[in-house]
Amino acid sequence: MINNNRDDRRSQFKKGIDADESRRRRTETTISLRKSKKDEGIAKRRARVMAPTTMTADDISSSSAPVVYDHSKRDKVFTTQDIPSLMEQLHEIQQSGVMDGDKLRSIAQAFRKIMSVENNPPVHEVLNSGVLPYLINMLSLTDKPLVQFEAAWALTNIASTDQTAAIVDGGAIPALVQLLMSASADVREQSAWCLGNIAGDSTALRDVVLAANAMQPLILNIIKPESTSLFSNCVWALSNFCRGKPQPAISQVESAIPAIVDILRSDNEDAKVDALWALSYISDGGEEHIDAVLQCNVAP
């Protein structure tokens, strides 16, 4: 009888342990699923359908002057059938040696429109055309911010597909990082968007972005944003810079923590969500990562 009572108590105790263990596992599974859902949503974004309204003639070298975007060709529909003609125009420009800003902008715009379809964008047709090196070279035309903007937008759409690595292999990362310091806020925003897509593709590409020193200019755009849109997209990109396992070295992301703290004290609810995810990615590591977060007084 005594043995039976003892066995009963052991059984009840074991059930309590099992219940606690099951609850812990359910919680961990729920958190894991939430992160998976977040990762699915945060990893990549297709670039916006409409262009910003702050840019016009591509001979403008600074975004400080209020300007109006040229809408004349916005409604033209481009498809893969236009690719041969567009490539022919690019070859003609190259042979002439004259970098015609209007023509280059129109061509880059056409390719980003081709890639802007909602389902199954024709990324293989676009890449097979050989346009990628041209788009990447357009990023370096510092006296033509509209060309840079359209080229970065086209690259952003390519980066939103499963062919993101092609942009990295093509050598676009240094130019995109440099454009985070462009005089044009629109160019900075589009470059941040593209880099966010690239970092969101895989940890390997994330590390390439971080190794190119993209974090610091991105943070500067968060600290001193020129627009709400620029701020929001940079915070989203920041969360992608921090996500994934294996985690980035703490030395590559710890400079972002003070900016994240400031975001959490702001009134931008969407940015707060992305900032919290960035913080969770950073702190979900070893003691070194956790200590870096605590030293910034994130948890009062």
Produce a short descriptive summary.
With 300 residues, this protein is an all-alpha fold. The chain has helices at residues 2-42, 83-96, 101-114, 123-128, 132-138, 145-159, 164-169, 173-179, 185-201, 203-211, 215-223, 228-242, 250-253, 257-264, 269-283, 287-294. α5 crosses α6 (145-159).
How would you explain this protein's 3D organization?
The protein has 16 helices and no strands. About 15% of the residues have low confidence. Helices cover 65% and strands 0% of the residues. It is mostly helical. The longest helix is centred in the N-terminal third of the chain and has 41 residues.
Distance between the termini: 54 Å
Largest pleated sheet? none
Number of helices: 16
Helix content: 55-70%
Radius of gyration: 24 Å
Q: Structural class of the secondary structure composition? A: mainly alpha
Q: What overall geometry do the principal axes of the alpha carbons give?
A: elongated
Mean pLDDT comes to: 80
Order of helices and strands: HHHHHHHHHHHHHHHH
Number of strands: 0
Beta-strand proportion: under 5%
Q: List low-confidence stretches.
A: 9-17, 26-38, 48-54, 56-72
Overview features:
300 residues, mainly alpha, 16 helices
Task: Set down the secondary structure blueprint.
Blueprint lengths: L1 H41 L40 H14 L4 H14 L8 H6 L3 H7 L6 H15 L4 H6 L3 H7 L5 H17 L1 H9 L3 H9 L4 H15 L7 H4 L3 H8 L4 H15 L3 H8 L6
